[in-house]
Amino acid sequence: MRSFLLFVIAALLASCNSKIKIDSLFVNGTVYTVDSSFSKAEAVAVKDGKIVATGTTAELQQQYDAKETVDLQGKFMYPGFIDAHAHFYRYGLGLQTADLTGTVSWEDILHRLSEFNKGLAPAKGDWIIGRGWDQNDWTVKEFPTNEQLNRLFPDNPVLLTRVDGHAAVVNDLALQLAGITAETKLTGGDVFVANRKPTGVLIDNAIDLVSTKIPPATAMQIKAALMDAQRNCFAAGLTTIVDCGIDYDDVLQIEKAQASGDLKMRLYVMLSDAKKNYDAIFKRGKIKTDRLNVRSFKVYGDGALGSRGACLLEPYSDKAKHYGFLLSSPEHFDSVAAVLYKNQFQMCTHAIGDSGNRTILNIYGKYLQTTNDLRWRIEHAQVVNENDFALFGKYSIVPSVQPTHATSDMYWAEQRLGPKRVKGAYAFNDLLKQNGWIPLGTDFPVEDIDPLKTFYAAVFRKDTKGWPAQGYQTENALTREATLRGMTIWAARSNFEENEKGSIENGKFADFVVLDTDLMTASFEAILKTTVLKTISNGETVFSKKN
Protein backbone atom coordinates (compact mmCIF):
# COMPACT_ATOMS: atom_id res chain seq x y z
CA MET A 1 0.00 0.00 0.00
CA ARG A 2 2.86 2.40 0.90
CA SER A 3 4.46 1.75 -2.49
CA PHE A 4 1.18 2.48 -4.25
CA LEU A 5 0.76 5.83 -2.44
CA LEU A 6 4.31 6.83 -3.33
CA PHE A 7 3.56 5.94 -6.95
CA VAL A 8 0.41 8.14 -6.97
CA ILE A 9 2.25 11.07 -5.40
CA ALA A 10 5.08 10.72 -7.90
CA ALA A 11 2.58 10.62 -10.77
CA LEU A 12 0.85 13.76 -9.51
CA LEU A 13 4.17 15.58 -9.17
CA ALA A 14 5.16 14.51 -12.65
CA SER A 15 1.82 15.75 -13.94
CA CYS A 16 2.36 19.16 -12.32
CA ASN A 17 5.89 19.42 -13.65
CA SER A 18 4.69 18.59 -17.16
CA LYS A 19 2.43 21.63 -17.22
CA ILE A 20 3.61 24.58 -19.29
CA LYS A 21 4.58 27.49 -17.11
CA ILE A 22 2.93 30.80 -18.02
CA ASP A 23 2.41 34.21 -16.46
CA SER A 24 -1.37 34.53 -16.36
CA LEU A 25 -4.45 32.43 -16.86
CA PHE A 26 -7.86 34.07 -17.25
CA VAL A 27 -10.66 31.61 -16.53
CA ASN A 28 -14.45 31.30 -16.23
CA GLY A 29 -15.29 34.08 -18.65
CA THR A 30 -17.20 34.63 -21.86
CA VAL A 31 -14.38 35.50 -24.23
CA TYR A 32 -15.24 37.01 -27.61
CA THR A 33 -12.10 36.25 -29.59
CA VAL A 34 -13.18 38.24 -32.70
CA ASP A 35 -11.28 35.74 -34.83
CA SER A 36 -12.33 34.95 -38.40
CA SER A 37 -15.24 32.79 -37.22
CA PHE A 38 -16.17 35.11 -34.33
CA SER A 39 -15.73 32.21 -31.92
CA LYS A 40 -16.09 32.29 -28.15
CA ALA A 41 -13.91 30.76 -25.42
CA GLU A 42 -13.89 30.52 -21.62
CA ALA A 43 -10.22 31.02 -20.83
CA VAL A 44 -7.02 32.64 -22.12
CA ALA A 45 -3.40 31.82 -21.32
CA VAL A 46 -0.73 34.53 -21.42
CA LYS A 47 3.07 34.42 -21.36
CA ASP A 48 5.56 37.24 -21.94
CA GLY A 49 2.82 39.67 -22.87
CA LYS A 50 1.33 37.47 -25.59
CA ILE A 51 -1.54 35.02 -25.91
CA VAL A 52 -0.43 31.39 -25.96
CA ALA A 53 -3.80 29.63 -25.91
CA THR A 54 -7.57 29.99 -25.72
CA GLY A 55 -10.08 27.30 -24.80
CA THR A 56 -12.23 26.05 -21.98
CA THR A 57 -11.30 26.66 -18.37
CA ALA A 58 -10.81 22.96 -17.74
CA GLU A 59 -8.56 22.49 -20.78
CA LEU A 60 -6.24 25.37 -19.99
CA GLN A 61 -6.05 24.64 -16.26
CA GLN A 62 -4.96 21.12 -17.15
CA GLN A 63 -2.30 22.31 -19.60
CA TYR A 64 -0.83 25.38 -17.90
CA ASP A 65 0.77 26.30 -14.59
CA ALA A 66 0.16 30.04 -14.14
CA LYS A 67 1.86 32.44 -11.76
CA GLU A 68 -1.46 34.27 -11.57
CA THR A 69 -4.97 32.98 -12.19
CA VAL A 70 -7.70 35.57 -12.76
CA ASP A 71 -11.27 34.38 -12.26
CA LEU A 72 -13.49 36.39 -14.63
CA GLN A 73 -16.57 35.16 -12.75
CA GLY A 74 -18.65 34.88 -15.87
CA LYS A 75 -17.87 38.40 -17.08
CA PHE A 76 -17.17 39.30 -20.69
CA MET A 77 -13.73 39.65 -22.24
CA TYR A 78 -13.04 41.30 -25.61
CA PRO A 79 -9.89 42.29 -27.46
CA GLY A 80 -8.62 45.62 -26.17
CA PHE A 81 -10.52 48.36 -27.94
CA ILE A 82 -8.68 50.24 -30.67
CA ASP A 83 -9.71 53.80 -31.45
CA ALA A 84 -9.08 54.17 -35.18
CA HIS A 85 -9.27 57.97 -35.15
CA ALA A 86 -8.54 60.19 -32.17
CA HIS A 87 -6.21 62.91 -30.94
CA PHE A 88 -4.41 61.35 -28.00
CA TYR A 89 -1.65 63.93 -27.46
CA ARG A 90 -3.88 66.96 -28.12
CA TYR A 91 -6.52 65.48 -25.82
CA GLY A 92 -3.94 65.25 -23.04
CA LEU A 93 -2.88 68.84 -23.55
CA GLY A 94 -6.54 69.86 -23.59
CA LEU A 95 -7.03 68.41 -20.12
CA GLN A 96 -4.81 71.26 -18.92
CA THR A 97 -7.10 73.93 -20.46
CA ALA A 98 -10.66 75.15 -19.92
CA ASP A 99 -13.28 72.50 -20.72
CA LEU A 100 -16.13 74.13 -22.63
CA THR A 101 -17.99 70.97 -23.64
CA GLY A 102 -21.68 70.94 -22.83
CA THR A 103 -21.97 74.72 -22.55
CA VAL A 104 -25.47 75.87 -23.44
CA SER A 105 -24.80 79.50 -24.39
CA TRP A 106 -22.08 82.07 -24.95
CA GLU A 107 -22.81 83.41 -21.48
CA ASP A 108 -22.26 79.93 -20.06
CA ILE A 109 -18.84 79.84 -21.75
CA LEU A 110 -17.88 83.22 -20.28
CA HIS A 111 -18.90 82.10 -16.80
CA ARG A 112 -17.00 78.81 -17.05
CA LEU A 113 -13.96 80.60 -18.44
CA SER A 114 -14.00 83.14 -15.62
CA GLU A 115 -14.12 80.35 -13.01
CA PHE A 116 -11.25 78.55 -14.76
CA ASN A 117 -9.27 81.79 -14.85
CA LYS A 118 -9.66 82.28 -11.10
CA GLY A 119 -7.94 78.96 -10.44
CA LEU A 120 -5.32 79.51 -13.14
CA ALA A 121 -4.36 83.03 -11.99
CA PRO A 122 -2.47 83.81 -15.20
CA ALA A 123 0.16 86.52 -15.36
CA LYS A 124 -0.27 89.40 -17.78
CA GLY A 125 0.31 88.15 -21.30
CA ASP A 126 -0.28 84.44 -20.52
CA TRP A 127 -2.59 82.65 -22.91
CA ILE A 128 -6.05 81.49 -21.81
CA ILE A 129 -7.17 78.49 -23.86
CA GLY A 130 -10.41 76.54 -23.95
CA ARG A 131 -12.09 74.02 -26.19
CA GLY A 132 -15.36 72.18 -26.68
CA TRP A 133 -18.19 74.65 -27.38
CA ASP A 134 -20.77 74.00 -30.08
CA GLN A 135 -23.13 76.79 -31.12
CA ASN A 136 -25.57 74.20 -32.46
CA ASP A 137 -26.31 73.30 -28.82
CA TRP A 138 -27.34 76.86 -27.96
CA THR A 139 -30.79 78.44 -28.12
CA VAL A 140 -29.27 81.15 -30.32
CA LYS A 141 -27.31 79.06 -32.80
CA GLU A 142 -25.16 81.84 -34.19
CA PHE A 143 -21.46 82.44 -33.73
CA PRO A 144 -20.76 85.00 -30.97
CA THR A 145 -18.62 88.11 -31.13
CA ASN A 146 -15.71 88.89 -28.83
CA GLU A 147 -16.71 92.15 -27.10
CA GLN A 148 -17.28 90.46 -23.74
CA LEU A 149 -14.02 88.51 -24.06
CA ASN A 150 -12.20 91.79 -24.57
CA ARG A 151 -13.73 93.25 -21.41
CA LEU A 152 -13.10 90.17 -19.26
CA PHE A 153 -9.54 89.49 -20.43
CA PRO A 154 -7.93 92.70 -21.68
CA ASP A 155 -4.38 91.64 -20.74
CA ASN A 156 -4.40 87.99 -21.82
CA PRO A 157 -4.77 86.57 -25.33
CA VAL A 158 -7.68 84.12 -25.47
CA LEU A 159 -8.31 81.24 -27.89
CA LEU A 160 -11.53 79.21 -27.58
CA THR A 161 -11.90 76.49 -30.20
CA ARG A 162 -15.11 74.81 -31.23
CA VAL A 163 -15.58 71.13 -30.35
CA ASP A 164 -14.39 69.99 -33.80
CA GLY A 165 -11.39 72.35 -33.86
CA HIS A 166 -12.59 73.95 -37.10
CA ALA A 167 -13.82 77.23 -35.64
CA ALA A 168 -12.66 79.47 -32.81
CA VAL A 169 -13.41 82.69 -30.97
CA VAL A 170 -10.47 84.86 -29.94
CA ASN A 171 -10.18 88.25 -28.26
CA ASP A 172 -8.70 91.36 -29.83
CA LEU A 173 -5.34 90.88 -28.15
CA ALA A 174 -4.98 87.46 -29.82
CA LEU A 175 -5.98 89.01 -33.17
CA GLN A 176 -3.34 91.69 -32.75
CA LEU A 177 -0.61 89.16 -31.90
CA ALA A 178 -1.53 87.20 -35.04
CA GLY A 179 -1.68 90.30 -37.23
CA ILE A 180 -5.28 89.59 -38.23
CA THR A 181 -7.31 92.53 -39.57
CA ALA A 182 -10.54 92.98 -41.50
CA GLU A 183 -8.47 92.76 -44.69
CA THR A 184 -6.88 89.39 -43.88
CA LYS A 185 -7.52 86.86 -46.66
CA LEU A 186 -6.32 83.26 -46.84
CA THR A 187 -6.92 79.93 -48.56
CA GLY A 188 -9.03 77.41 -46.69
CA GLY A 189 -10.12 79.72 -43.91
CA ASP A 190 -12.24 82.70 -43.01
CA VAL A 191 -12.11 85.73 -40.72
CA PHE A 192 -15.58 86.94 -39.77
CA VAL A 193 -15.94 90.71 -40.09
CA ALA A 194 -18.68 93.13 -38.99
CA ASN A 195 -18.63 96.89 -39.20
CA ARG A 196 -15.22 96.66 -40.86
CA LYS A 197 -13.54 94.89 -37.93
CA PRO A 198 -12.96 91.23 -37.05
CA THR A 199 -15.61 89.78 -34.75
CA GLY A 200 -13.15 87.30 -33.24
CA VAL A 201 -14.63 84.29 -35.07
CA LEU A 202 -12.09 82.35 -37.12
CA ILE A 203 -12.70 79.35 -39.37
CA ASP A 204 -10.20 76.58 -40.18
CA ASN A 205 -6.84 77.88 -41.48
CA ALA A 206 -7.46 81.29 -39.93
CA ILE A 207 -7.17 79.63 -36.50
CA ASP A 208 -3.59 78.63 -37.29
CA LEU A 209 -2.62 82.30 -37.56
CA VAL A 210 -3.40 82.58 -33.86
CA SER A 211 -2.44 79.13 -32.54
CA THR A 212 1.10 79.42 -33.93
CA LYS A 213 1.64 82.35 -31.55
CA ILE A 214 1.04 80.19 -28.49
CA PRO A 215 4.32 79.17 -26.78
CA PRO A 216 5.11 75.46 -27.22
CA ALA A 217 4.36 73.09 -24.37
CA THR A 218 7.19 72.45 -21.92
CA ALA A 219 8.64 68.98 -21.40
CA MET A 220 6.78 68.77 -18.10
CA GLN A 221 3.47 69.72 -19.76
CA ILE A 222 4.00 67.16 -22.51
CA LYS A 223 4.73 64.38 -20.02
CA ALA A 224 1.65 65.30 -17.99
CA ALA A 225 -0.49 65.35 -21.15
CA LEU A 226 0.63 61.87 -22.19
CA MET A 227 0.09 60.42 -18.72
CA ASP A 228 -3.33 62.03 -18.30
CA ALA A 229 -4.49 60.83 -21.71
CA GLN A 230 -3.21 57.31 -21.04
CA ARG A 231 -5.00 57.09 -17.69
CA ASN A 232 -8.36 58.03 -19.19
CA CYS A 233 -7.93 55.77 -22.22
CA PHE A 234 -7.08 52.70 -20.16
CA ALA A 235 -10.09 53.42 -17.91
CA ALA A 236 -12.26 53.37 -21.05
CA GLY A 237 -10.94 49.98 -22.19
CA LEU A 238 -8.72 51.38 -24.94
CA THR A 239 -5.35 49.71 -25.55
CA THR A 240 -4.37 51.24 -28.92
CA ILE A 241 -5.03 54.77 -30.17
CA VAL A 242 -4.58 56.16 -33.65
CA ASP A 243 -3.25 59.68 -32.99
CA CYS A 244 -4.21 61.72 -36.03
CA GLY A 245 -1.90 64.55 -36.95
CA ILE A 246 1.02 65.39 -34.66
CA ASP A 247 4.55 66.60 -35.34
CA TYR A 248 7.71 64.52 -35.50
CA ASP A 249 9.05 66.36 -32.43
CA ASP A 250 5.99 65.11 -30.52
CA VAL A 251 6.82 61.57 -31.63
CA LEU A 252 10.26 61.96 -30.05
CA GLN A 253 8.57 62.83 -26.75
CA ILE A 254 6.32 59.80 -27.06
CA GLU A 255 9.33 57.58 -27.72
CA LYS A 256 11.04 58.97 -24.63
CA ALA A 257 8.00 58.28 -22.43
CA GLN A 258 7.63 54.77 -23.82
CA ALA A 259 11.34 54.00 -23.37
CA SER A 260 11.11 54.96 -19.69
CA GLY A 261 8.21 52.56 -19.24
CA ASP A 262 5.79 55.31 -18.21
CA LEU A 263 3.80 55.39 -21.45
CA LYS A 264 2.35 51.92 -22.06
CA MET A 265 -0.38 52.93 -24.49
CA ARG A 266 0.13 51.57 -28.01
CA LEU A 267 0.01 54.40 -30.54
CA TYR A 268 -0.36 54.46 -34.29
CA VAL A 269 0.74 57.96 -35.22
CA MET A 270 -0.20 59.96 -38.31
CA LEU A 271 2.24 62.80 -38.83
CA SER A 272 0.87 66.21 -39.74
CA ASP A 273 1.12 67.49 -43.30
CA ALA A 274 4.18 69.73 -42.89
CA LYS A 275 7.56 69.85 -44.62
CA LYS A 276 9.53 69.42 -41.39
CA ASN A 277 7.69 66.15 -40.72
CA TYR A 278 8.26 64.77 -44.23
CA ASP A 279 11.95 65.63 -44.04
CA ALA A 280 12.40 64.02 -40.62
CA ILE A 281 10.56 60.75 -41.18
CA PHE A 282 11.80 60.11 -44.73
CA LYS A 283 15.35 60.53 -43.46
CA ARG A 284 14.78 58.13 -40.57
CA GLY A 285 12.30 55.76 -42.20
CA LYS A 286 9.16 54.16 -40.80
CA ILE A 287 9.12 53.59 -37.05
CA LYS A 288 7.81 50.27 -35.71
CA THR A 289 8.02 48.92 -32.19
CA ASP A 290 5.53 46.93 -30.12
CA ARG A 291 4.01 50.19 -28.84
CA LEU A 292 4.68 52.73 -31.60
CA ASN A 293 3.96 52.67 -35.32
CA VAL A 294 4.70 55.69 -37.54
CA ARG A 295 4.12 55.12 -41.24
CA SER A 296 1.38 57.54 -42.27
CA PHE A 297 0.45 61.19 -42.74
CA LYS A 298 -2.71 63.09 -41.85
CA VAL A 299 -3.88 65.60 -44.47
CA TYR A 300 -6.84 67.99 -44.15
CA GLY A 301 -9.11 68.07 -47.20
CA ASP A 302 -11.83 70.44 -46.01
CA GLY A 303 -13.46 71.86 -42.89
CA ALA A 304 -16.35 70.67 -40.71
CA LEU A 305 -20.08 70.52 -41.36
CA GLY A 306 -20.98 72.20 -38.07
CA SER A 307 -19.04 75.34 -38.93
CA ARG A 308 -20.06 75.15 -42.63
CA GLY A 309 -16.46 74.64 -43.68
CA ALA A 310 -17.07 71.22 -45.25
CA CYS A 311 -16.73 71.51 -49.03
CA LEU A 312 -20.01 70.69 -50.81
CA LEU A 313 -20.90 70.10 -54.45
CA GLU A 314 -24.03 72.25 -54.07
CA PRO A 315 -24.60 75.17 -51.68
CA TYR A 316 -25.52 74.64 -48.05
CA SER A 317 -29.28 74.29 -47.65
CA ASP A 318 -29.19 76.79 -44.77
CA LYS A 319 -26.75 79.30 -46.29
CA ALA A 320 -27.37 80.39 -49.88
CA LYS A 321 -24.40 80.45 -52.27
CA HIS A 322 -22.05 79.04 -49.64
CA TYR A 323 -20.21 75.84 -50.59
CA GLY A 324 -17.60 75.60 -47.84
CA PHE A 325 -14.01 75.19 -49.02
CA LEU A 326 -10.99 72.96 -49.43
CA LEU A 327 -8.23 73.71 -46.94
CA SER A 328 -5.53 73.46 -49.61
CA SER A 329 -5.52 73.42 -53.38
CA PRO A 330 -6.13 70.15 -55.24
CA GLU A 331 -2.57 70.51 -56.54
CA HIS A 332 -1.27 70.33 -52.97
CA PHE A 333 -3.18 67.13 -52.25
CA ASP A 334 -1.90 65.67 -55.52
CA SER A 335 1.69 66.52 -54.61
CA VAL A 336 1.31 64.87 -51.19
CA ALA A 337 -0.18 61.75 -52.78
CA ALA A 338 2.72 61.58 -55.22
CA VAL A 339 5.42 61.77 -52.55
CA LEU A 340 3.66 59.34 -50.17
CA TYR A 341 3.06 56.84 -52.96
CA LYS A 342 6.71 57.06 -53.97
CA ASN A 343 7.90 56.54 -50.37
CA GLN A 344 5.27 53.87 -49.59
CA PHE A 345 3.70 55.79 -46.72
CA GLN A 346 -0.01 55.64 -45.94
CA MET A 347 -2.07 58.72 -46.84
CA CYS A 348 -4.95 59.53 -44.50
CA THR A 349 -7.08 62.53 -45.45
CA HIS A 350 -9.80 64.31 -43.51
CA ALA A 351 -12.78 64.74 -45.85
CA ILE A 352 -16.25 65.79 -44.69
CA GLY A 353 -18.26 67.28 -47.57
CA ASP A 354 -19.26 65.46 -50.75
CA SER A 355 -17.01 67.73 -52.81
CA GLY A 356 -14.14 67.23 -50.38
CA ASN A 357 -14.59 63.46 -50.55
CA ARG A 358 -14.84 63.43 -54.33
CA THR A 359 -11.68 65.51 -54.69
CA ILE A 360 -9.66 63.19 -52.47
CA LEU A 361 -11.14 59.98 -53.90
CA ASN A 362 -10.18 61.01 -57.41
CA ILE A 363 -6.66 62.04 -56.42
CA TYR A 364 -6.20 58.73 -54.58
CA GLY A 365 -7.48 56.92 -57.66
CA LYS A 366 -4.89 58.60 -59.87
CA TYR A 367 -2.12 56.88 -57.91
CA LEU A 368 -3.77 53.70 -56.66
CA GLN A 369 -5.41 52.95 -60.06
CA THR A 370 -6.95 49.63 -58.99
CA THR A 371 -7.48 47.43 -55.93
CA ASN A 372 -4.42 47.26 -53.71
CA ASP A 373 -3.17 46.78 -50.15
CA LEU A 374 -1.78 50.25 -49.45
CA ARG A 375 -4.75 51.02 -47.18
CA TRP A 376 -4.95 54.73 -47.94
CA ARG A 377 -7.69 56.13 -45.74
CA ILE A 378 -10.32 58.81 -45.83
CA GLU A 379 -10.94 60.04 -42.31
CA HIS A 380 -14.64 60.68 -41.59
CA ALA A 381 -16.00 60.15 -45.15
CA GLN A 382 -18.94 62.00 -43.69
CA VAL A 383 -20.99 63.15 -46.70
CA VAL A 384 -20.54 61.10 -49.88
CA ASN A 385 -22.32 61.63 -53.17
CA GLU A 386 -24.31 58.59 -54.30
CA ASN A 387 -22.12 58.29 -57.39
CA ASP A 388 -18.88 58.17 -55.39
CA PHE A 389 -19.37 55.29 -52.93
CA ALA A 390 -18.07 52.76 -55.46
CA LEU A 391 -14.71 54.56 -55.63
CA PHE A 392 -13.86 53.28 -52.15
CA GLY A 393 -14.10 49.71 -53.41
CA LYS A 394 -12.58 50.39 -56.84
CA TYR A 395 -9.34 51.69 -55.29
CA SER A 396 -9.44 49.80 -51.94
CA ILE A 397 -9.74 53.11 -50.07
CA VAL A 398 -10.48 52.67 -46.36
CA PRO A 399 -13.34 54.77 -44.94
CA SER A 400 -12.40 55.52 -41.32
CA VAL A 401 -15.58 56.67 -39.57
CA GLN A 402 -16.77 57.79 -36.14
CA PRO A 403 -20.32 56.64 -35.33
CA THR A 404 -20.98 59.24 -32.63
CA HIS A 405 -20.64 61.99 -35.25
CA ALA A 406 -23.94 60.75 -36.68
CA THR A 407 -25.78 60.96 -33.37
CA SER A 408 -24.22 64.33 -32.50
CA ASP A 409 -25.03 65.91 -35.86
CA MET A 410 -28.43 64.35 -36.56
CA TYR A 411 -30.32 67.24 -34.93
CA TRP A 412 -29.15 69.76 -37.55
CA ALA A 413 -27.45 67.80 -40.38
CA GLU A 414 -30.55 67.90 -42.60
CA GLN A 415 -30.73 71.66 -42.21
CA ARG A 416 -27.21 71.90 -43.61
CA LEU A 417 -27.65 69.33 -46.37
CA GLY A 418 -31.35 69.02 -47.22
CA PRO A 419 -33.44 65.80 -47.16
CA LYS A 420 -31.92 64.16 -50.26
CA ARG A 421 -28.23 64.88 -49.74
CA VAL A 422 -28.33 63.91 -46.05
CA LYS A 423 -29.04 60.30 -47.07
CA GLY A 424 -25.42 60.05 -48.18
CA ALA A 425 -24.20 61.27 -44.79
CA TYR A 426 -22.96 58.98 -41.98
CA ALA A 427 -23.64 56.09 -44.35
CA PHE A 428 -21.57 53.52 -42.49
CA ASN A 429 -23.26 50.41 -43.84
CA ASP A 430 -23.02 51.67 -47.43
CA LEU A 431 -19.32 52.34 -46.85
CA LEU A 432 -18.82 48.92 -45.22
CA LYS A 433 -20.12 47.24 -48.36
CA GLN A 434 -17.37 48.71 -50.51
CA ASN A 435 -14.44 46.74 -49.05
CA GLY A 436 -16.18 44.43 -46.58
CA TRP A 437 -14.55 46.04 -43.54
CA ILE A 438 -14.54 49.43 -41.82
CA PRO A 439 -12.50 50.83 -38.89
CA LEU A 440 -14.31 52.79 -36.17
CA GLY A 441 -13.14 55.55 -33.85
CA THR A 442 -14.39 58.35 -31.64
CA ASP A 443 -12.44 61.42 -32.79
CA PHE A 444 -11.96 62.36 -29.14
CA PRO A 445 -11.84 65.07 -27.83
CA VAL A 446 -14.28 66.16 -30.55
CA GLU A 447 -16.57 63.41 -29.24
CA ASP A 448 -16.60 61.49 -25.97
CA ILE A 449 -13.62 59.22 -25.37
CA ASP A 450 -15.88 56.26 -24.44
CA PRO A 451 -15.71 53.48 -27.08
CA LEU A 452 -18.94 52.01 -25.73
CA LYS A 453 -20.71 55.08 -27.08
CA THR A 454 -19.16 54.22 -30.45
CA PHE A 455 -20.76 50.77 -30.19
CA TYR A 456 -24.09 52.24 -29.12
CA ALA A 457 -24.21 54.86 -31.87
CA ALA A 458 -23.15 52.44 -34.61
CA VAL A 459 -25.71 49.76 -33.71
CA PHE A 460 -28.69 51.74 -32.41
CA ARG A 461 -28.17 55.17 -34.06
CA LYS A 462 -29.73 56.96 -31.07
CA ASP A 463 -28.63 59.60 -28.60
CA THR A 464 -28.11 58.75 -24.95
CA LYS A 465 -31.75 59.53 -24.19
CA GLY A 466 -32.91 56.92 -26.70
CA TRP A 467 -33.93 59.41 -29.38
CA PRO A 468 -35.14 58.96 -32.04
CA ALA A 469 -37.13 55.94 -30.92
CA GLN A 470 -36.60 54.07 -34.20
CA GLY A 471 -33.04 55.31 -34.68
CA TYR A 472 -31.50 57.77 -37.15
CA GLN A 473 -31.20 56.60 -40.78
CA THR A 474 -31.06 53.02 -39.53
CA GLU A 475 -30.47 51.63 -43.01
CA ASN A 476 -26.87 52.60 -42.27
CA ALA A 477 -26.65 51.07 -38.81
CA LEU A 478 -24.02 48.37 -38.35
CA THR A 479 -24.58 44.94 -36.86
CA ARG A 480 -23.15 44.20 -33.44
CA GLU A 481 -20.54 41.87 -34.89
CA ALA A 482 -19.45 44.39 -37.53
CA THR A 483 -19.24 47.10 -34.90
CA LEU A 484 -17.10 45.03 -32.54
CA ARG A 485 -14.83 44.10 -35.46
CA GLY A 486 -14.62 47.79 -36.38
CA MET A 487 -13.43 48.61 -32.86
CA THR A 488 -10.86 45.79 -32.79
CA ILE A 489 -9.57 43.71 -35.70
CA TRP A 490 -10.65 46.07 -38.51
CA ALA A 491 -9.16 49.04 -36.67
CA ALA A 492 -5.94 47.03 -36.35
CA ARG A 493 -6.09 46.22 -40.07
CA SER A 494 -6.39 49.88 -40.98
CA ASN A 495 -3.03 50.30 -39.20
CA PHE A 496 -1.34 47.24 -40.81
CA GLU A 497 -1.41 45.60 -37.36
CA GLU A 498 -3.99 42.84 -37.73
CA ASN A 499 -1.35 40.11 -37.27
CA GLU A 500 -0.37 41.35 -33.81
CA LYS A 501 -3.54 42.71 -32.21
CA GLY A 502 -7.30 43.17 -32.62
CA SER A 503 -8.36 39.62 -31.77
CA ILE A 504 -7.74 37.11 -28.99
CA GLU A 505 -5.64 34.55 -30.84
CA ASN A 506 -2.37 32.72 -30.24
CA GLY A 507 0.71 34.85 -30.77
CA LYS A 508 -1.01 38.21 -30.52
CA PHE A 509 -0.49 40.81 -27.81
CA ALA A 510 -2.38 40.10 -24.60
CA ASP A 511 -4.51 43.23 -24.87
CA PHE A 512 -7.98 42.74 -23.38
CA VAL A 513 -10.91 44.59 -21.88
CA VAL A 514 -13.29 42.97 -19.39
CA LEU A 515 -16.84 44.32 -19.19
CA ASP A 516 -19.83 43.50 -17.02
CA THR A 517 -22.08 43.41 -20.10
CA ASP A 518 -22.50 41.14 -23.11
CA LEU A 519 -22.37 43.62 -25.99
CA MET A 520 -23.73 41.00 -28.38
CA THR A 521 -27.05 40.62 -26.57
CA ALA A 522 -27.61 43.60 -24.24
CA SER A 523 -30.37 46.16 -24.75
CA PHE A 524 -29.44 49.67 -25.79
CA GLU A 525 -30.16 50.89 -22.25
CA ALA A 526 -27.77 48.28 -20.82
CA ILE A 527 -24.99 49.18 -23.25
CA LEU A 528 -24.87 52.72 -21.87
CA LYS A 529 -24.66 51.39 -18.31
CA THR A 530 -21.76 49.06 -19.08
CA THR A 531 -18.79 49.18 -16.72
CA VAL A 532 -15.18 48.55 -17.69
CA LEU A 533 -13.93 46.14 -15.02
CA LYS A 534 -10.37 45.59 -16.23
CA THR A 535 -8.08 46.70 -19.01
CA ILE A 536 -5.06 44.51 -19.74
CA SER A 537 -2.19 45.64 -21.96
CA ASN A 538 0.64 43.28 -22.82
CA GLY A 539 -0.62 40.93 -20.13
CA GLU A 540 -0.44 43.62 -17.43
CA THR A 541 -3.55 44.95 -15.71
CA VAL A 542 -3.34 48.68 -16.40
CA PHE A 543 -6.82 49.51 -15.11
CA SER A 544 -9.03 47.77 -12.57
CA LYS A 545 -12.40 49.02 -11.39
CA LYS A 546 -12.38 49.64 -7.67
CA ASN A 547 -15.29 48.14 -5.77
Protein described:
- With 547 residues, the chain is of the alpha/beta class.
- It folds into three domains: 1-74, Urease, subunit C, domain 1; 97-212, Diaminopimelate Epimerase, Chain A, domain 1; 228-502, Metal-dependent hydrolases (TIM Barrel, Alpha-Beta Barrel), CATH 3.20.20.140.
- It has 20 helices and 24 strands.
- Strands 8, 15, 16, 17, 18, 19, 20 and 21 form an eight-stranded mixed beta sheet that branches. It has a six-stranded mixed beta sheet with strand order 3-2-7-22-23-24, with helices on one face. The protein has a six-stranded mixed beta sheet with strand order 9-10-11-12-14-13, sandwiched between helices.
- A hairpin with a 2-residue loop joins strand 23 and strand 24.
- Helix 3 packs across helix 8 (219-235) and helix 14 (403-409) crosses helix 17.
- The protein is globular, with a radius of gyration of 25 Å.
